[in-house]
Amino acid sequence: MMNKSCTTIACLWLTSFFILSVAIPMRPQLTPDFYSTTCPDLWNIVRNEVLNAMKDEIRIAASLLRLHFHDCFVNGCDGSILLDGDEDSEKFATPNLNSARGFEVIDKIKNSVERSCSGVVSCADILAIAARDSVLLSGGPFWYVNQGRRDGLVSNKTLANLAIPSPFDTLDTIISKFDNVGLNLKDLVTLSGAHTIGRARCTFFSNRLFNFSGTEEPDSTLETEMLIELQNLCPQNEDGNTTTVLDSNSDDLFDNHYFNNLQYGKGLLSSDQILFSSDDDETTSTTKNLVQYYSHNQRIFFMEFAYAMAKMGNINPLVGFEGEIRKDCRVVNSQ
Ligand code: HEM
Ligand SMILES: *[C@@H]1O[C@H](CO)[C@@H](O)[C@H](O)[C@H]1NC(C)=O
Ligand SMILES: *[C@@H]1O[C@H](CO)[C@@H](O)[C@H](O)[C@H]1NC(C)=O
Ligand SMILES: *[C@@H]1O[C@H](CO)[C@@H](O)[C@H](O)[C@H]1NC(C)=O
């Protein structure tokens, strides 16, 4: 009976399916328990190191969160931003130069992790967990961080310059940069909520303060008192390195206050304030509605932020035997 039925086309198909599925295994997936046997203490180690770093400097949480974002947008979350290199490396790209920070903390975490379980955990995974803990320890949501990313071998400054959004980009350009890595408009608004913590240098918003887009007037969308404060903070002939908080009146707490600020013209960067612009089109009404919604509902913002961070953390990972597990996050192993 069995043999007879096995001569049918259906059985052939089933058999070949079975062989195929053995011969071509499914692409390995990231999972939260990837290191549960090989590095069971990983989560505690990272959590403690992030906590220690925050005791030294509270802002480091924001810097680590941003580092993960800048990593993921360039060739996926592969730790490429951590690589030292010549002036063609990602660290020298415009969005990162004199701006990306937290590398010493990642080194420190990596050293602790290596002492506990040597040669097992990728720098890309460490960065993803550190970003989550930075949010959590700043008062924000928890999410399970998928793991199993491998470390990349190339650092590409050209791509970093193209892929990472600039505060001077139009909303359409920022939308397409998110779209290029599989993130949608809702993800964009949600993830911009990361600007609830951290600092920005005058150089990234001073164009709004005196002669905005050649109008010889400040950006009219910027609230008046904040404008005057910022004009004093960032005089026209200084080097632009002075910093101020992205989320005024809620500097270092991870909350939904950022979205409140936007509704009063108190977004620091142009790219923040355009999420609540007075333009009357479909995109603007979508972003405005989300801004309003999140400002009234921190619980929903936290849920959506956790979801979007997990989604960002899944961008184009190296898995299986791709890439490597770097010994030192700053250099590829072959060097
Ligand atoms: C939507 C497009 C975005 C633009 C144009 C943008 C731009 C910027 C700029 C210009 C700064 C200041 C950097 C400096 O002054 O050195 C900054 C800081 C920051 N960004 Fe964004 N960002 C965007 C989205 C994101 C996302 C998606 C995240 C994380 C999920 C993020 C997290 C941060 C954090 C935490 C800081 C503060 C860093 C620190 O204090 O060291 N940003 N961003
Ligand atoms: C870097 O990225 C650019 C832009 O996507 C690409 O043309 C170039 O081939 C990349 N270089 C390397 C070394 O991967
Ligand atoms: C304002 O910017 C425009 C265009 O960049 C420039 O032509 C003009 O000279 C600037 N005005 C002042 C007062 O600097
Ligand atoms: C800001 O500081 C860095 C070093 O920290 C320096 O190289 C740079 O020239 C300064 N000015 C600007 C406009 O970035």
Strand content: under 5%
> Termini separation (Å)?
62 Å
CATH topology of the largest domain: Peroxidase, domain 2
Cα shape: globular
Radius of gyration (CA) equals 23 Å
Low-confidence stretches: 1-6
Characterize the largest beta sheet: strand count, sense, and whether it forms a barrel: 2 strands, antiparallel
Count of helices? 14
Site (Transition state stabilizer): 66
Cofactor: Ca(2+); heme b
GO cellular component, one term: extracellular region
Signal peptide: 1-23
Describe this structure in words.
By secondary structure, this protein is mostly helical. The protein folds into two domains: 42-162, Peroxidase, domain 1; 166-311, Peroxidase, domain 2 (Orthogonal Bundle). It has helices spanning 2-5, 9-23, 42-56, 60-72, 103-116, 123-137, 157-163, 171-180, 185-192, 224-233, 257-263, 270-273, 282-296, 298-313, and strands at 199-201, 243-245. Strands 1-2 form a two-stranded antiparallel ribbon. It is globular. The relative contact order is 0.16. Mean pLDDT is 94; it is low at 1-6. The structure holds protoporphyrin IX containing FE and 2-acetamido-2-deoxy-beta-D-glucopyranose (3 copies). One 2-acetamido-2-deoxy-beta-D-glucopyranose binds next to loops.
